[in-house]
Every structure is written in structure tokens, then in C-alpha cells.
Amino acid sequence: MLTLSSLGVAVLLGIGVIVGYMVRQAITQHRKNSLELRIKQLLLDARAEAQEVLLSAKEKASGILEQVKGETRSRESELRKLEERIRQKEEAVERRTVDIEQERKEINEHREQIKRVKEEIAKQEEEKIRELQRVAGLTEKEAREMLFASLEKHYQEDLLARLHKLEVGGEEMLEKRGRDILASIIQRVATPTTSEVTTTTVTIPSEDLKGKIIGREGRNIRALERAAGVEIIIDETPGTIIISGFDSVRRHIAKMALEDLIIDGRIQPARIEETVEKARQAIDKIMKEAGNAAAYEVGVFDLDPKLIQLLGRLKFRTSYGQNVLQHSIEMAHISGMLAAELGADVAIAKKGALLHDIGKAVDHEVQGTHVEIGRRILQKFSVEKAVIQAMQSHHEEYPYETLESIIVQTADAVSAGRPGARRDTVEHYLKRLEDLEAIANSFEGIEKSYAIQAGREIRIFVSPEKVSDFEAKNLARQIANRIEQELKYPGEIKVHVIRESRAVEYAR
After folding, report:
1. CB-based contacts of 321: which residues, under 8 Å, 6+ apart?
2. What per-residue confidence (pLDDT) applies to 436?
3. Residue 230: phi, psi to the nearest 5?
4. How far is CA 62 from CA 50, 54, 75, in A?
């Protein structure tokens, strides 16, 4: 029974499989036929669409072709117009070229004509000169020299008088203007100024203090000299101790420290070093205050603090007995007034004058002239170029590049040359006198020369047989120029050339 059931199931399964296969084949065939019909329909649609696109493209291409043809015709028209304009310009250029060529020919003809005329004139002049030389028996150079000599001899007195009149008139006008300006300046800068000399002596109340200052085996004095950087001289001079050193600031520090030690009474190496350091700080403060006061007084407010310190250092520096800081302040005032009168830059002139001797603050420590040292200092602190140009020419080491440089040099001469401003040594005066007389005696025709008024004036006696009145005037000018070139001096030097002739006869 079980076997029959299994067989039936198997038969049913086989029939189901066959039927399923046939149904599947039928469905597949149906789908295949449907897909072919769809593909054919798509091909027909694509062909129709392609036909439409082709027709549209042909229409667009035809439109573009017409547009291009229109633009081509327009371009051809413009090109024809442009060619016409170029042709017209070429014709105009050709006509202008012809005209220029014609003008060139005419100019060349005129030039040749002028050349022929010049040659003819030159030939006539040569013939006239040869004729004159033949008649006079002289060359052209000899005739010219004879003519000039005759004119000079004939009009010598008139020329001399005329020259003297012009010179005197010009000098009077310039001198009057200069007096007016200087009078105004001196009136406005009339501050009490005194000559200062840096003191190098310290007064002590008793001679017993000399031993304390020297100390056991010289310990105290060596400590003071080492700390202050100076030399202490203790001799038999009663009541005084001498401080020696090139640096005036160090001398003031040593002087202040020594005075404090004398008052305190405790003189020993440790105390000496402490006192010297306090004195150094006090002097630095004094220099800073002096620099600030000087800058404020003249109206200069943009200086570097270190530059202010160097400026204040000039308070302890003198030149020919004149305090350098006071001299710089005075110069700044004078320069400002001169600049205002002459239309120059007042600020540059004041600043250049105030800093013109800044190199003297360290000239004992740095090699070179104080002008060169000052230039390097100002360049280091990035001071304006115009200020450096103004200060560097006050001793004529550098050429005058600006009006302010001339003003600073003039102010320096005014400040240094006024009466009582400076003191000088006898040797310096004697050397100036000798140099003046040597310059005067180096010229021909000089009999004697005398430098007087402490070198402010020189009187020169000439031989009347060798030097005429006209030549004496020129000689005075030549000697003055030599003095200006070779000598350095404050103020001015008057040159007198004296020519005297005497006729002596005896009645018997």
C-alpha cells in the first residue's frame, strides 16, 4: 500500500514538472515576441527623431551660413574703407616727404651760402690783420698787449677809484646789514656768560689730612686713583691737593669724592670706592640734568637720552677757557636767529649748533678730531642728515653743503670771537703773529710787516718803486685770501697795505 502511494506521488511530480516546463517555455516565447516588437518600435521612433534633428540642424546651419556671409560682407566693406584711408595717408606722406626734401635742399643752399659769406669775411679780416701788422710792424699778440697796457696806464687811476668805490660801497652795505643782524642777535642773547676753567685742586682744612689721604704705605691714595681714574698729587703746597687727569669728568668725580671723604673723616679703601661710586652717580645725574636743561632752553626735544647724557658731559669741558656747553647753547640761539633772518630751517640750524661740539665729550677716549667723532656719534644715534651736514662744516673740514652749515659756522665765529669769550696762551698768540708776518713777507715788494692787536690786524709796508697804488690794492686782497686759506682764527683780521713815497731835496 505504501509503495503505490509513493508511485502516485512520483507520477504526479513528473507531470507537474512537465507541465511547469511547458508553461515556462510558453511564457518565455511570449516575452521574446513582445521584446522584439518593442525594439522595432524603438527603432522606428529613433529614426523619426533623427530625421527631425537632421532637418532642424540643416535649418540652423543655413541660418548660421547666412549670418557668416553677412558678417563677411561687412568686414569686406570695412577693409575697403581702411585701405582707402591708408592710401590717402600714404599719398599725404609722399607729398610731405617731397616738401621736406625741398626744404632740406633750400636749407643746404642757405648753409652753403652762409659758409661762403663767413669764409669771405674771415679772409677779409685776415687781410686786414696782416695789413695792420705790416703797417705797425707788430704781431696780433703784441698789438693786443700794447693796447691793453696803454689803456691800463691811461685809466689806471680811474679804474682804481672805481674799484675802490664799488668795494667800499659793497662793504658798507654788507657791513650795515651784518651789523643790524648781529646787533639784534646780541641784544636777544645778552646773557651773562663767564669763562670757566676746570679746577683741579682740593682745599683741605689741615695738613694732617694729607697723611690720612695717603694712608698706610699709600693704600688710600692708590685706591682713590684706581677708583676715579686720575692721578692725585700731594706735595708741600700748604692746604691743597692737586688732581691730575685728561678727563675733566673724572677730575670732578675725584674732587667730589675727596671732599666728601674729608668731611666724613673715614678714609679707607672700601669707603673710598663707595664714595667714588656715589660721586660718579651724582655727576651722571648732573650731566643728565644739564643736557636736558640745555636742550629745553634752545627748543630741541627729540634727542636720544644717551645723546642728552653726552651733551651734559660738555658742562665739564672747556675750550680756550670757554665752557663748551654754554658755548653750544649760545651758538644755538645765534643760529636760530640767523636762520630766521635768512629764511633757513630754524630747527635744523639750532640742532646742528647745539650738537656741533658733541665730539669733545669723548675726544680724550676716542681717536680722531672732535668733528669726525661728532659725525660718528650723530650717525650712531640716527640723527637727521641735514643736522650732520650743518655741524660737520664749522671748522671747514667738510664743504658747506647747506645754508644751515654756513649759519652754524658763522654762529661759532660770533660766539668764540666776541670780547672776553675765550682766553688763549701767549705761545698761541706769538705763533699767530709769526704766521701772519710770514704770509705777508712771502709776497714780492714787501719791505716790512707788523702783526698787531693780538693778531687781529697786520700792517704791511711796501716798496713804492716796486708796487703801485693799483697793485697795492690787489696785494691786500691776495694776502687776505692767503690768510683765510692757511690760518684758523676767530673773528676777522684786518690787512693794511701802506705805500709811501718821499721826495727829498736840499737847498744850498
Report:
1. 195, 196, 197, 422, 423, 424
2. 86
3. -130, 180
4. 18, 12, 20
CA-based nearest residue to 414, from 351, 358, 318, 336: 336
Residue where a domain stops, chosen among 148, 172, 190: 190
pLDDT at 190: 46
User: Is 3 part of any domain?
Assistant: no
Determine the average pLDDT of the residues in 108-122: 86
Whose CA is closest to 452, among 483, 494, 484? 494
Q: Strands, DSSP E only, in 153-203? A: 201-203
Q: What does the alpha-carbon distance between residue 293 and residue 41 come to, in Å, rounded to a whole number?
A: 112
Amino acid at 56: S
Q: Is there a domain that residue 276 lies in?
A: yes
Query: What are the two backbone dihedrals, phi and then psi, of residue 449, each rounded to the nearest 5 degrees?
Result: -145, 140
Q: How far is CA 166 from CA 178, 194, 269, in A?
A: 18, 41, 74
Give the integer Cα–Cα distance in Å for 351 and 411: 13
**How many structural domains are present in the chain?**
4
All three cell numbers of 374, joined, read: 661728532
Grid coordinates belonging to 369: 678730531
Q: Give the residue numbers spanning the domain of 350.
A: 322-423
Is residue 455 within 8 A of residue 429, CB to CB? The reply is: yes
Per-residue model confidence as pLDDT tens digits over 119-158: 888 888 787 777 666 666 666 677 677 766 766 666 565 6
Rounded mean pLDDT, 9-31: 75
Domain boundary among 360, 394, 423: 423
